[in-house]
Design goal:
Distance between the termini: 23 Å
Number of helices: 4
Radius of gyration: 14 Å
Order of helices and strands: HEEHEHEH
Oligomer: single chain
Largest sheet: 4 strands, mixed
Helix content: 25-40%
Structural class: alpha+beta
Number of strands: 4
Strand content: 15-25%
Shape: globular
């Protein structure tokens, strides 16, 4: 596995504690993007923001680094928490399949599907 967060069980909890309750998150269903939704506390979550007229939505699609090989949304959580806090936007942190279990172009296909 190329996801180091699987080897560090406290990684998610420690990262979210850095946000100090400013950011909320939950896993995204396949129908709403597949990955992890993050939003400023009090925003109301994905359903509330996505029900707004399209021109008024504050939405960011974040694709984490790692050259489609390394890392995951978990490993970039401190970055995404800070981005959500500073932009006040709903963020979908994309999750995609990685090699060697899923060779190219699986990751790219997952992102295009989002």
């Amino acid at each position: 596995a190329t996801d180091i967060s699987q080897r560090l069980p406290l990684f998610r909890r420690l990262s979210l504690s850095m946000a100090r309750g400013i950011v909320e998150s939950r896993n995204a269903s396949e129908a709403l993007g597949h990955g992890e939704w993050m939003w400023p506390a009090g925003m109301g979550g994905p359903e509330a923001e996505l029900s707004q007229p399209q021109a008024e939505r504050r939405l960011v699609l974040y694709v984490h680094g790692g050259a489609f090989v390394l890392c995951s949304p978990s490993t970039h959580r401190s970055i995404t928490c800070n981005l959500v806090d500073s932009t006040g936007s709903l963020m979908l942190v994309a999750k995609y399949r990685r090699p060697p279990e899923h060779p190219y172009p699986a990751a790219l296909e997952d992102l295009v599907a989002v």
